[in-house]
Amino acid sequence: MSNPFSEFYHVPNSTELLDIAFKRAMKSSAKVSKNAPILMKAKKKESKRIKVAFEELINRILNIIKSVPIIGEVQDFYKELASLLVDIDKLRLTLGKLNGILPIFSQLEREYSSKLNRIESPKEADRIRRAAFGRISSIIKKQNENLEYLNSIRGKLREIPSIDYSMPCVVVAGYPNVGKSSLVKNISTNKKIEVQEYPFTTKNLILGHLELMGKFTKMKLQIMDTPGILDRPMSKRNNIELQAILALRLISDLIIFIFDPTPASGYNVDSQIELFNEIQDQYIKDKNIDTIIVLNKMDLAKEEEIESLKSKLNLSEEKIFITNALTGENLDKLIGYLNERYMPKE
Ligand SMILES: Nc1nc2c(ncn2[C@@H]2O[C@H](COP(=O)(O)OP(=O)(O)OP(=O)(O)O)[C@@H](O)[C@H]2O)c(=O)[nH]1
Ligand SMILES: [Mg+2]
Fold first, then answer.
1. CA spacing 20 to 30 A to 131: which of 4, 147, 198, 227?
2. What spacing in Å lies between the alpha carbon of 175 and ligand 1's midpoint?
3. Tell me, what's the pLDDT at 2?
4. Fold of 14-158
């Protein structure tokens, strides 16, 4: 399923909305016979302008509301991720407030049409139209904060990656600064991923693809880069870390857990092991999700650092890869493992 927020387009602010509506209204022309009395012509002309202005605004506001999916109806992954990225209650409230002006507009449109019907001189038609536009302006201007709020959260929601639920997704996780992004960037098609020497560079879930080749078939495996997670109580974790946990819980078919056995990341190995154990014990148990281990930064790691970490982990050798995510050393072995796991046996 693609990101349900991908249709959440630019939301105009109040000035833009009013500009569009009034321009269209003033350009509209009413059908009226040339020989009709002046009063009738004036009534028809202004009545059309008022109608077009209201219609334009009602349609545009409806489109804005419709472009935001109903949170309760989207997949759990998108629902939970959206609530980490934005304040869902505020979003609901904002949409409700916008929706609230629609019946007011319908009511005003009727009110001004009947006022126009009762006029006795052509000049009054212009005055009534101006009055209607004045009411419209003041109502729309009061919505400016809501419109701008919607526009401000739009970017965050649209950036959520589109997951293909029919295909497996490998989630790459671990402590900050251990080389998760370097690895995903190296093995996937996504070369735009940012790598920096400081922790918490990655602040969102980022999707890449890895093409696996069988003898007769090929397949695009999804591979998800995640923000670093610290070993600390859940209540202390920030929304950046929680996105990574969400990906592990809800979309991982396989986890690649990356360790930095060296002091380079700035975090010690024991904390990384604690996190690894927490993930195993709390988020994926009962789910039958496999984990493979990458001991990264092999170029910096001392023999004893690798051996000590291995013995602490006490896992089978075939699930442990010792890599350099920058040069790509041994990543072919990791890809080989993924190939064997996901491509049908020939
Ligand atoms: N020497 C060496 N440096 C590495 C290796 N892999 C990554 N790095 C460096 O480690 C630092 C962090 O790399 P990232 O790929 O951004 O790490 P990350 O785990 O995605 O970090 P966050 O997104 O902040 O959690 C960068 O300076 C990388 O150049 C490696 O195998 N060897
Ligand atoms: Mg990163």
1. 147
2. 11
3. 85
4. Four Helix Bundle (Hemerythrin (Met), subunit A) (1.20.120)
